[in-house]
Amino acid sequence: MIKAFIFDVDGTLADTERDGHRVAFNQAFDEAGLDWYWSEQIYGELLAVTGGKERIQFFIDSHNRPEKNRADLQDLIKSLHARKTENYVALLKNNAIPLRPGVKRLLLEAQAANIRLAIATTTTPQNVTALLENALGSESLDWFEVIGAGDIVPLKKPASDIYDYVLQEMQLDAADCIAFEDSFNGIRSSSAANLKTIITFNGYTRHDDFTGALLVLDHLGDEDNPSELLLKQTGQPFLTVEDVLKLSNELL
Ligand code: XBP
Ligand code: MG
Predict the structure, then answer these.
(1) Which of 6, 26, 95, 138 is packed most tightly, with the most Cβ within 10 A?
(2) Residue 57: its H or E element
(3) Which burial class, exposed, middle or buried, applies to 231 when counting CB atoms under 10 A from its CB (0-12, 13-18, 19+)?
């Protein structure tokens, strides 16, 4: 019996990477006087590594930046990332990034059906708060029993740590939960925690390998915004809680 839904944030709840995180990183680089610029394409490549600080390090290494020899490199990365977080939170306040189609509907439906909700993400906790407050109102923070985020665990996705942490906090078995993810690193993490996973891909992740997913959709769909892939597979415009429960029992 499914008792909880566990949601990833970036790319799953909202399309935050291209017009949110990427922009906030570039602002931080500019403010620090660095000549780095992450284009949409470069950012897509950098998404191979989760976590903002880890992504900056990956950029320096993979683009062979001279800064790699700086004695204060780790301090530089930390301060760039702190600025990036401030920029991202400000950006969401001024220009809220909407939730993806069907997300609010499914969250409300799940609560009505007494399904417990949680979040498992590699992003910084302040970013989750800012996204939820601006897109759904501050009361929505209470919809989630556990918000597992950022450096709270030793290893970020694709390691299972953040999902293991959330399951432990909720005192639930993986078999009683469904994860919602958008990326290869996301499903590697949820699968490593033995969770069944529903994928809603986005522009950056549409060609990722989602082997093992329970279902792969373009988005969750709403009445007035049908999920094309769900329509094709079941004739229904949007995914309901009942569908998720059936799917988990391989009945859909
Ligand atoms: C999200 C991430 C995060 C964000 C940036 O991955 O990798 O690093 O891009 O957030 P997922 P921070 O959706 O798989 O959790 O800069 O706060 O790390
Ligand atoms: Mg994601």
Answers:
(1) 6
(2) helix 52-62
(3) middle
| Alpha-carbon gap, residue 215 to 198, rounded angstroms | 5
CA distance 202 to 57: 25
Catalytic machinery residues = 8, 10
Which atom of ligand 1 has the smallest separation from the CA of 182? 13
Q: Is the peptide bond before 98 cis (omega within 30 degrees of 0)?
A: no
Q: How many residues does the chain have?
A: 252
DSSP conformational letter for 145: S
* Contact present, 148 and 165 (Cβ < 8 Å): yes
How do residues 177-215 score in pLDDT, each as one tens digit? 999 999 999 999 999 999 999 999 999 999 999 999 999
- The whole-chain average pLDDT of the chain stands at 97
174 close to 195: Cβ distance less than 8 angstroms: yes
Most informative mutation of 122, 195, 202 for ligand 1 (most atoms within 8 A of CB): 122
Closest ligand by atom to 83 CA: 1
Place of tokens 């920029």: 87
Task: State the distance from the centre of ligand 1 to the C-alpha of 102, rounded, in angstroms.
Answer: 22
Rounded distance, CA 235 to CA 162, Å?
35
Q: Name 71's Cβ contacts closer than 8 Å, sequence gap at least 6.
A: none
Q: How far is the CA of 224 from the centre of ligand 1 (A)?
A: 30
